[in-house]
Amino acid sequence: MLASGSAGNATLLRSGGTALLIDAGISARELSRRLAVSGLGDVRIDALLLSHEHNDHVRGAAAVSRRLGCPVYANRATSTGARLLRAVPRGALVEFVTGSPFTVGCLEVTPFLLPHDAAETVGFAVSDGRMRAGFATDLGSVTLDVLAGLSGCDLVVLESNHDEAMLSDGPYPEFLKKRVSSPYGHLSNSDAAQLANSLFHDSMAHLVLAHLSRTNNHPDLPLEAVRGALGPRCSRVTVTLGWQDRAGEVITL
Length: 253
Ligand SMILES: [Zn+2]
Ligand SMILES: [Zn+2]
Prior knowledge:
- The chain is of the alpha/beta class.
- It has one domain (about 10-240): Metallo-beta-lactamase, Chain A, CATH 3.60.15.
- It is built from nine helices and twelve strands.
- It has helices at about 30-35, 55-60, 60-70, 75-80, 145-150, 165-170, 175-180, 190-200, 220-230; strands at about 10-15, 20, 45-50, 70-75, 95, 100-105, 105-115, 120-125, 130-135, 155-160, 205-210, 240.
- Strand 8 and strand 9 form a beta hairpin.
- Helix 8 runs parallel beside helix 9 (about 220-230).
- The radius of gyration is 17 Å and the shape is globular.
- The mean pLDDT is about 95.
- The site of one zinc ion (ZN) has 5 residues, from loops.
């Protein structure tokens, strides 16, 4: 996970000879820098997948597409909703249909609907036929689509945005508190922990808690919530965090 949070998101996923970038909410230059720091500077990216049109997910998309020469995959609502995507080179935009799987190289990608206040936000389940990874980072509540999309994953990347008490007692204006905590906003630590508990299965190897608020959360809290929800089973899955200001460690499944 190269960047995670409301100031920019980007995650690299690679299997065999295929590499996908999920979201590009940081600049192309910063993205390249973080790839290099992670020892992945020479990876050829086959596709940039966009989850939704909010700036923290698409800010660098056009520049990344030009600089790295990769196509940009988005559903129609996202590609027409994001002004920033008008700068994507002609022919580089590929449209997918939410709910319909598509392949990029050796990877099968299934985009599934997330409840969030953008045109048509999606999470992604990505499989190489052997391992399955699920990503859901901007969602206000847990729906059947979310449960189905993330089920049976060996790696789950899940939003754990805020602590409910920190949000309600914190400095955000009332309208923003309402937006964040709404069913179409962002997932709280306790909601994320409950979801992690519902998703837990014997081959879930790694859980990454992501999109943490810098104002309304503290890195210890999502980890505590997940430990509380999973109980002793927590020792059977590695739980880490996604960071805003730096790339996380490379996770190998
Ligand atoms: Zn976001
Ligand atoms: Zn968003």
